[in-house]
Design a protein that fits this description.
Layout (H helix, E strand, L loop, with lengths): L8 H5 L7 H14 L6 H9 L4 H9 L6 H12 L2 H23 L5 E5 L6 H8 L5 E7 L2 H14 L5 E5 L5 H4 L8 E4 L9 H15 L3 E7 L5 H7 L15 H11 L2 E7 L5 E7 L1
Parallel strand pairs: 1-2, 1-4, 2-3, 4-5
Antiparallel strand pairs: 5-7, 6-7
Helix pairs in contact: 3-4, 6-7, 10-12
Length: 282
């Protein structure tokens, strides 16, 4: 159940009335972030590419404060120390460990991993560096810039022969049918929170089962975030609109996955109680 002190998803979608003190507060916060705030490299990246983009996730993962002048680095350090950013970095490690453990439990059998909304996919590369198993990886994303960064990582690590990249929409059923052979593990982390329509996720999970039929799926669910209204009213997404994330309970999304045919959920929460990382079996 969503924390009653936080606004609902529907409330976040609704603009605040002009006379609301909260509107004045968030408008001032947005003005500050768009002006002085862009001295911070992270905030600059967020407004350029969207605060729900793979590019800002990569920046947060790197966790190296940068910016123009002393004030820029100071603001950047404050950004990277926000609880939302700490949770992003925590779930990156959780996801890496779950993927690595899954590969290792296959006892040397070839493993095909497909990430349908990969971004740069740091968590997969780190998992690959910690295992010597026979693995092939397909990374797909709608952001060509993130894929370009990912290709560079694969090249630097000497993994071009086992990691391939494709520009594709994770929710496109026809595109999924082009993936061969059927993957052992499907990963799609950071995806569900930016999808507003519950039915779209339910149908997508059914497509995963009916089209790809993987041995296992790995996803995360943003269940709680004390900064959710600030993000929604002061920041922008990849489309230049307000960055409204849809919080859902892990139990709800797991129930949709179970109805699609997946089972045995294994859940790991980040230390801040924001994200649930879930692996389920076929």
């Amino acid at each position: 159940m969503q924390n009653r002190l936080m606004p609902t998803f529907e409330e976040l979608l609704t603009p605040l009335p002009f006379y609301s003190p909260r509107k004045w507060y968030y408008d001032l916060a947005s003005l500050f972030l768009r002006s002085i705030g862009t001295c911070s490299e992270g905030i600059k990246v967020g407004f350029k590419h969207g605060f729900d983009s793979g590019m800002i996730m990569n920046y947060i993962y790197n966790n190296v404060p940068s910016g123009r002048f002393y004030v820029g680095k100071l603001i950047d350090r404050m950004l990277l120390n926000q609880v939302t950013c700490k949770a992003f970095r925590a779930i990156k490690d959780i996801q890496k460990n779950i993927i690595k453990d899954y590969i290792q439990e296959r006892n040397g059998n070839p493993t095909f991993v497909v990430d349908l909304a990969s971004g740069k996919a740091d968590y997969i590369y780190e998992g690959l560096r910690e295992t010597n198993a026979r693995v092939r990886v397909l990374l797909r994303d709608i952001d060509e810039r993130a894929l370009m960064e990912s290709r560079e990582i694969a090249k630097n690590l000497g993994l071009q022969n086992i990691v391939s990249h494709e520009l594709a929409n994770a929710l496109d059923s026809d595109s999924m049918r082009c993936i061969t052979p059927k993957p052992d593990l499907v990963v799609e982390v950071g995806l569900y929170g930016i999808i507003h329509d519950d039915e779209q996720i339910r149908l997508h999970l059914k497509d995963l089962k009916n089209i790809l039929d993987p041995d296992a799926i790995l996803f995360n669910v943003q269940t709680y975030n004390p900064q959710i209204e600030l993000i929604a009213r002061a920041l922008k997404n990849q489309d230049g609109q307000r960055c409204v994330w849809h919080l859902r309970s892990a139990d709800l999304v797991i129930s949709w996955a179970e109805k699609a045919g997946f089972r045995d959920p294994h859940i790991v929460m980040d230390p801040y109680g924001i994200y649930a990382v879930v692996m389920m079996r076929n």
